[in-house]
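User: Run a structure prediction on this.
Assistant: Running it now.
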Amino acid sequence: MASKIWLKIIPLDSKPMLMKKNLIFLGFAVVFLMACSEERKKINEQVVPHPTEDSTQVEEAREEVAFFQYEELPDFPDAILELYTPLGNQVFRPGKVPFEFNIKNYPFEEEASNRFRLFLILNGSDPVGHRSPIFQQELQEGTYRVVAFLVDEAGFALKNFGNYIDRDFQVGDSRPFPYSAEPYLALNFPRANQEYGAEDEFVVDFLVLGGDMKLDGLKVKIEIGDYEYEIDHMAPIRIENLPAGEYQVKVSLLRNNNTELEGPFSSVTKTVIVR
């Protein structure tokens, strides 16, 4: 009785295809692992020693306070924010004032249902988030300056030209702001009375409007209690190792020769608490 012989026929091109798939998978795995392990690079870091009230006092061992930025590319650099209403120095009756924005090159509609992507600052107050580009806000008689801006995934203000806009308007029997060509500040973070835990990231995030920091010879000075830091461009500033306590955070716009700029919005002060 003849023996049965079973043959398994493998197509000639099956092994190369299998190897190709494995190489593709391996490539994705390597990229994933590199992305996970890669840490963001700190730049412009400045370490500030803790002040001591008594020079003879032996200070307990603790890490020094560090100010720095991360080297990173901006999100949505081509995003455009346009303000249709209010118009410049438009006058409204006290009550509900309409705001209408137009947003381009930015995924506002996709995200608007579950998070704030558009923020407004009125006269230097804390930012208020909005989920729609058209809304009304209850306002009393007065003169107002609105700064509106879009934010990235972390909630920091987008800082490219066109990502933000400002406008003056009046409500009721109020006069316009005196004309001034001076640049000024808008502060996104920190917010008034914001509290930070030991693991929370302390960030100062600001915008400079009405001028160019490089071309106009400007810098921003940050004072957090006795700790100071200066920066000559717009970027979120991280602060590490702040001791627990209550702090006055003052953010000021200065000339490079340390001359203070005039105007009510050239500096902003907020109280924060570090636990």
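The first strand starts at residue 42 and ends at 48.
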